Amino acid sequence: MAKSLEIVAAALGAPGGGILAADESTGTIKKRFDSVHAKSTEETRRNYREMLFQTEVAMRENISGVILYDETIRQKAKDGTPLVELIKAAGTIPGIKVDQGAKPMAGHPGELVTEGLTGLRDRLADYYELGARFAKWRAVINIASHIPTPACIRANMHALARYAALCQEANIVPIVEPEVLMDGDHDIERCYEVTEATLRSLFAELYEQRVNLEGTVLKPSMVISGSKCTNRAGVEEVAEKTVHCFRRAVPAAIPSIVFLSGGQSDLDATAHLNAINSLGNLPWQMSFSYGRALQAAPLKAWSGKTENEPKAQAALAHRAAMNGLATQGAWKPELEKATP
Ligand code: 13P
Fold it and tell me: To test ligand 1's pocket by mutation, which of 258, 260, 265, 323 has the most ligand atoms within 8 angstroms of CB?
């Protein structure tokens, strides 16, 4: 395997930084824009994302990689510079979402399976030419009384492993993202059980498909109570159970684990990551690949108006800095008071 895969996989989770997930599909970004009464057009999406990628301090200091959507990786900034070049100039690695969404799984009510393997080899070659050096594929596991079924877990983890093998063949680092959704009233024990089964299945499939773990990044959800659980676990328990579960199920050969935020509040996502890293003595780098937990504040500050861009960039820089500290267990709630 090319040495470059190992270098990129380690760089993406290096302490102090993490990934900005800016790969919302056109449908999802429209929902985000609607929430702040901003119009979603190809131009406004470009303007918003260009503003994020021009947040110089954050990009240089605390953002190791940016995940792009197909539209964005082909777009140019207002001055004609490709957005990919802006990202590279800031010393950040461009990446690309390559899955084609989680679709209802036949014969399995309430469960989803992610599509996108057909034609993936050709798409990866194209994305490499456009500058992508890592990719992302998200599998979705739902928790309810009778689900997930073993068939749903296996189908999704098999697809993730097939995707990862194709990425490495194309010299692109695969981010494998098995998201166990927070939706529901389940407790943290149930999340632990489903997360462990999912991760064990994922690594069995990766082994079978001959995926090199040193050149792979894991993007998991944390072990956490369901969003409607009445007896929610606190920050310390989330950190302890997450690390306990991962020690059982995630090989130490994985260089970087970058969590998704999955609907956690900005502050919860930072506090949990900080508590995880405060446990110390971990075999992996533990960092972030946040979408909503990095973008909620800048999106609100921006609200579709050019004159708000400096405020929005300050909001992104602040959240990126807070999460950068959390990768080192050095974040403190008092630091949030400096919020712009
Ligand atoms: P969230 O952090 O908003 O969950 O998004 C991360 C992501 O890339 C989901 O696929």
Answer: 260
Residue type, 302: W
CA pair distance 67, 96, nearest whole angstrom: 5
Q: What atom in ligand 1 is closest to the CA of residue 138?
A: 10
Which tens digits make up the pLDDT trace of 79-126? Answer: 999 999 999 999 999 999 999 999 999 999 999 999 999 999 999 999
Distances (CA, A) of 279 to 75, 272, 329: 41, 11, 8
What's the Rg (C-alpha) of the chain? 19
Query: Which contacts of 39-45 are long-range, i.e. CB under 8 A and separated by 24 or more positions?
Result: 39/304, 42/71, 42/75, 44/304, 45/71, 45/72
Structural domains of the chain, ranges and CATH numbers in brackets = 2-333 (3.20.20.70)
Report the nearest atom of ligand 1 relative to the CA of 292: 3
The strand pair at 285-290 and 256-259 is best described as parallel
Catalytic residue among 24, 50, 111, 177: 177
List pocket residues of ligand 1, CB cut-off 6 Å.
Answer: 21, 23, 138, 177, 260-262, 290-293
Would the pLDDT of 239 be above 60? yes
- By CB atoms closer than 10 A (0-12, 13-18, 19+), residue 145 is exposed
